[in-house]
Structure prediction request, 278 residues.
Amino acid sequence: MNGPVLDLPVVVKAPPPNTLETRLEYLKRTVSASRLNLWGSCRLKLFFRYVLNEEKPPSAAMHAGKVVHAVLQSWNLARWRRGSFPLEGIKGFFDSQWTISKEGVSINFYGEEDDEKASSLRALEHYLQETPIKPEEKPEAVEVSIESDLSHHGLPTLVGVIDLVRAGGRIVDFKLVGKTPDSEQVVHTHETQLSAYSVLYRDATGRNESGLELHHLVRTKTPKLIVTSQPPMTESKKTRLFKVIESYQSGLERRDFVPSPGFHCAGCEYFKECRKWS
Prediction:
């Protein structure tokens, strides 16, 4: 296989289902960490986004995160190819990615696009200067889509995209955030995602990951880099992940799409639709 992915199998994406029933069937056959997190936070939101397939324009924060991830992907690929990624040209590359990602998309920046862009660039530049990843370290895998057949556990196929696998099998996920994260909270809130990545990595390579890392690029006025490291997934966490998948699976069978009102509703793109739910 060509590309920076070891022997990891590439996921072949299914064509978008075009009816409610076929979308439900597809969602029952596969599961991802993002869907599991959404299932845990609000089942009705999952219904709007994935079952009714009601797409909404990305938020300013989502746009910024997409651009930063694109730049970091190019940086990681350059190291995998043993090429160069000159930091002095980062602003121009970031600007072009910002423009490309806006094409054909309606994004409401609420008049603060310049601030969004500037804070994201500062956080990115700070990360590339302070990153614990050395320039000569060649990644094992970069932005790779993989899947794991969990049918022997009575579960659907797990799919996911891993941002980076460092040398030695350390799984890394990048996060662009607006405030300094609490280390204990991020370990808890991202447990499902990291456990899913561990399962995917182990199934694809036949070996355990050496560790897990969350790299938070904090775009405060003075940018920060917060690295949260975790040991390899334990059997207990694997069991917790499978229990969450079971809940997702049985909930889809029951069509259990109920709202979960809370503080997170303030920024939900489906707020108006939710208010009409009955």
Notes: The chain has one domain: 20-254.
